[in-house]
């Protein structure tokens, strides 16, 4: 496969895009009701369950799914695996979109959403012991870092178009940006490590409200490991999806070399979790906790199946098996995070929660928005490698330059 990134081009209003537009429109309608009539008008949240689907899925699961940029940056720039450079820009794009959507989801979830603007600016009122504050600040800064890392794709498009002032701006700033990227990359590795582990630390303070099968001192490490496994799984999914959708060559051999590392990451998660349960003398709860035992074993078996399939890629790489492994890993990670924040959480007798139709519609709208944004960007800017030159030629971006090159 060529290592040059090009815009995909082609028509935008495809049947898939129109379906996403419909979901976005439906979610927008529900969103108007939420912001004009309050949370109670569209959600099933309560004092017992102040965090529902919008946090558990759109933020906690969503940022896990958006960890591809973090995972590939660690692999390429820390472990020096330069042959994975073609995966960098697509991973950064999905990460930027995922984290941006998660940030918007927080606005929907918070009752007094207008107060969120105070978080980054009123530093004299910060609670220095708040894990939630650290998560919020890290996510805000990380969105900006991802935008900077992906900025060369925009500037290269302007440079290739050669249109007056935009081309001049691109030529002036591209070299400066590439010189600054090592510092930006370093920051982009630190921030996700902090906030992904802190998502697990948030649950430490839940104490007895969180079921013992999930409540452990290893929660920060477990959430960090699921971020890795989900991030790498998204690389597989995005690569195969974009290859099929846009006629790119499959990156089967390249992804196959990554299989042992991803499988090992998943096995490390399972080992840490099992060791934590045994160390706390809670292993027996896996068989005696009723419905929660079912969810525990569902997570475990999904992770095991994904690990086995990923490890097989080292011997015999096949796109179909890679897709199966990625979907299993994504399902396992998503289920673990939803279980930790919702299924395993028990605020006390009398409190029940199941997401309302309004919450589900808005969540689908978030997914649709992210999908549409992805399609627009890859069709207009040099993100994907292995794309045939479109009719309107755009200078390719050599993937050996800079963080997103």
Sum this structure up briefly:
This protein has helices at residues 15-37, 53-65, 68-78, 88-109, 131-161, 164-204, 219-246, 252-256, 259-279, 285-288, 291-312, 319-343, 357-380, and strands at 4-6, 384-385, 397-398.
Walk me through the structure.
- This is Ni/Fe-hydrogenase cytochrome b subunit.
- Pfam families: NrfD.
- It is found in: Cell membrane.
- The structure is a single chain.
- The chain has 405 residues and is an all-alpha fold.
- The chain has one domain: Formate dehydrogenase/DMSO reductase fold.
- 67% of the residues lie in helices and 2% in strands.
- It contains 13 helices and three strands.
- The chain has a three-stranded antiparallel sheet with strand order 2-1-3, with no helix packed on it.
- Helix 2 packs parallel to helix 13, helix 7 runs antiparallel to helix 9 and helix 7 packs across helix 12.
- It is globular, with a radius of gyration of 22 Å.
- It starts with a strand and ends in a 7-residue tail after the last strand.
Main pleated sheet: 3 strands, antiparallel
Class by alpha and beta content: mainly alpha
Q: Give the helix level as a range of percent.
A: 55-70%
CATH class: Mainly Alpha
Poorly predicted parts? 390-405
- For the largest beta sheet, what order do the strands appear in spatially? 2-1-3
Question: DSSP helix count?
Answer: 13
Rg estimate, integer Å: 22 Å
Shape type: globular
Mean pLDDT over the full residue set: 87
The number of E-state strands comes to 3
CATH homologous superfamily?
A: Formate dehydrogenase/DMSO reductase domain
Fold-level CATH name: Formate dehydrogenase/DMSO reductase fold
Q: End-to-end distance, in Å?
A: 15 Å
């Amino acid at each position: 496969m060529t290592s040059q990134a090009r815009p995909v081009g082609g028509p935008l209003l495809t049947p898939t895009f129109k379906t996403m537009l419909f979901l976005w429109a439906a979610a927008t309608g529900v969103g108007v009701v939420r912001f004009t009539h309050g949370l109670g008008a569209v959600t099933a949240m309560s004092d017992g369950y102040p965090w529902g689907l919008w946090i558990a899925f759109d933020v906690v699961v969503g940022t896990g799914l958006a960890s591809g940029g973090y995972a590939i940056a660690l692999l390429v720039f820390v472990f020096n695996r330069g042959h994975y450079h073609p995966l960098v820009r697509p991973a950064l794009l999905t990460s930027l979109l995922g984290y941006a959507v998660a940030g918007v989801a927080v606005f929907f979830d918070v009752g007094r959403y207008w107060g969120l603007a105070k978080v980054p600016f009123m530093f004299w009122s910060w609670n220095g012991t708040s894990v939630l504050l650290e998560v919020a600040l890290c996510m805000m800064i990380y969105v900006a870092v991802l935008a900077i890392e992906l900025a060369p794709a925009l500037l290269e498009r302007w440079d290739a178009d050669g249109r007056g002032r935009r081309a001049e701006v691109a030529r002036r700033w591209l070299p400066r940006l590439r010189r600054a990227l090592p510092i930006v990359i370093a920051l982009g590795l630190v921030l996700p490590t902090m906030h992904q582990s802190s998502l697990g630390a948030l649950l430490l303070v839940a104490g007895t409200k969180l079921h013992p099968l999930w409540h452990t001192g290893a929660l920060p490490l477990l959430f960090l490991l699921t971020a890795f496994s989900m991030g790498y799984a998204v690389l597989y999914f995005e690569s195969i999806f974009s290859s099929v959708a846009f006629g790119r060559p499959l990156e089967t051999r390249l992804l196959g070399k990554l299989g042992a590392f991803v499988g090992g990451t998943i096995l490390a998660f399972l080992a840490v979790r099992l060791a934590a349960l045994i160390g706390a003398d809670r292993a027996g709860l896996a068989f005696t906790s009723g419905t929660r035992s079912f969810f525990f074993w569902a997570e475990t078996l999904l992770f095991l199946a994904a690990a086995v399939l990923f490890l097989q890629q080292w011997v015999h790489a096949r796109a179909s098996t890679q897709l199966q492994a990625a979907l299993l890993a994504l399902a396992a990670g998503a289920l673990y995070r939803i279980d930790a924040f919702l299924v395993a959480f028990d605020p006390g007798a009398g409190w029940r929660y199941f997401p309302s139709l309004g919450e589900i519609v808005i969540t689908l709208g978030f997914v649709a928005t992210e999908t549409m944004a992805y399609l627009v960007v890859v069709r207009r800017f040099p993100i994907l490698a292995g794309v045939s030159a479109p009719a309107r030629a755009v200078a390719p971006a050599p993937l050996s330059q800079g963080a997103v090159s």
